[in-house]
DNA sequence: CTGAATATATATCAAATGATATCTTTTGAT
DNA sequence: ATCAAAAGATATCATTTGATATATATTCAG
């Protein structure tokens, strides 16, 4: 009976943290693989991305992916967790503040200002960053496909983000709790940002912009801010 | 020298219309393949969709795809053309009217009403229809990936649609020609609809809706209409 | 009814791809 | 310096997949 031997050290698939030891060089290789995988998965999706391409981009050989992440799906899940972590790094302070403020029963005007800050930061992340749009592609694709990483991304990113947005919109409209209209509004507002993340090349082409310079980004943000000003 | 023989009849790849004759039953098979292909490509994308799955869904054998469309890419392009045609069928009258009205220098109020009609119809198409969201997935994916069908879809669907929306917004704001702000606004408005097309299952899940009933759709449309009312 | 045009079916091919068995090299604590 | 753990490299499998050569069946105009 050829029963499966336990892998020699790093990961089996449902890993959470490195178990025993681990050399520095190994951790670097692991990081390179994760980076390359986020790019490939983000650009092409789970099925269309190939492990060979990821291995090549990461400068490792093919079995290294299995060694560090167990399987293609294990690697995909690890990417999802990494993306959640990176969004949190960039948004957590702002989001925590806004959440606390909501709890403290802020004024509609204050809510509007915080909504601008949150959406503005998110917009900047999506529009300007050359790496965040890869995360966004990853997340949006998973929201549409509902693949292996759906639960992680929905529960830890999408739902909390939309809920916060809905609560801020609700407060800005003078409501006490988020109405269906406020929640619909939140979905529409966040989804509208895809125009400049997933579909950024097309948007730039349509606008005749060679790239997303600071000045140009400012004009996008101005339009979004105006929309927020008109809420309520 | 095994030079490529011309296919026995239907398509070589860059087909436009059936050349000579063609039996009725053949045309039915062709239609089934196209239908199945739009579903597969829309749901999975070019690379991830498999010709075998498409053939099975269409109740034909594998070589039939080559026989009718030349290759996987030929089939993909045929889907793009078909989707352009179907959108036109459902939107053309409205779009033509709005275009003519713009040319006739309508009032901001009229422009706003027409904008509501166009976006409302589009929203209804995306939200309610179980087939139009497949076309939308197809189109949006191509806008992001810029694959073989990009030129067709951009030039014949996306750009004209966004341009019309931008012009109506511009007119509603009292402008004489579409400003950058109006065009950005148009991009955001159209992109926001993805919340209820590509990402519809997630939106329903978040809202706690088991499905998109007429009543529920009406509340989505109301929020969108309010946003249009606040333009300018 | 007949036959050329049209359409369908069978059987493979070659390349791409995820996975993995096996061997060698490197690392770093002792 | 030694050695077990960790990491990397090579070679190869089994599937999947797009493509197609070839044979058979069907359609419908005359």
From TrEMBL, chains A, B:
Residues 50-69 bind DNA. One of its GO terms (molecular function) is DNA-binding transcription factor activity. Gene3D superfamilies: Homeodomain-like, Tetracycline Repressor, domain 2. The keyword Nucleotide-binding does not apply. The keyword RNA-binding does not apply. It holds the Pfam family TetR_N. Keywords: DNA-binding, Transcription, Transcription regulation. SUPFAM superfamilies: Homeodomain-like, Tetracyclin repressor-like, C-terminal domain. Residues 27-87 form the HTH tetR-type domain. Residues 1-21 are annotated as: Disordered. PANTHER family: HTH-TYPE TRANSCRIPTIONAL REGULATOR BETI, HTH-TYPE TRANSCRIPTIONAL REGULATOR RUTR. This is TetR family transcriptional regulator. It comes from Chelatococcus reniformis.
């Amino acid at each position: 009976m050829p029963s499966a031997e336990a892998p020699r050290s790093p990961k089996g698939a449902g890993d959470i943290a490195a178990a025993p030891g681990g050399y520095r060089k190994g951790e670097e290789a692991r990081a390179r693989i994760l980076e390359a995988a986020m790019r490939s998965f983000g650009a092409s999706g789970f099925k269309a991305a190939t492990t060979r391409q990821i291995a090549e981009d990461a400068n490792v050989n093919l079995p290294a992916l299995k060694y560090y992440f167990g399987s293609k799906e294990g690697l995909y899940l690890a990417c999802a967790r990494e993306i959640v972590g990176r969004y949190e790094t960039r948004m957590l302070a702002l989001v925590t503040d806004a959440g606390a403020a909501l709890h403290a029963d802020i004024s509609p005007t204050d809510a509007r200002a915080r909504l601008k800050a949150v959406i503005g930061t998110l917009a900047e992340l999506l529009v300007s960053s050359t790496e965040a749009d890869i995360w966004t592609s990853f997340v949006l694709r998973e929201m549409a496909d509902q693949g292996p990483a759906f639960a992680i991304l929905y529960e830890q990113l999408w739902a909390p983000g939309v809920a916060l947005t809905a609560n801020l919109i609700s407060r800005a409209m003078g409501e006490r709790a988020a109405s269906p209209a406020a929640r619909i509004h939140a979905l529409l507002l966040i989804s509208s940002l895809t125009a400049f993340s997933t579909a950024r090349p097309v948007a730039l082409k349509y606008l005749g912009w060679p790239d997303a310079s600071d000045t140009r980004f400012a004009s996008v943000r101005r339009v979004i801010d105006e929309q927020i000003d008109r809420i309520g």
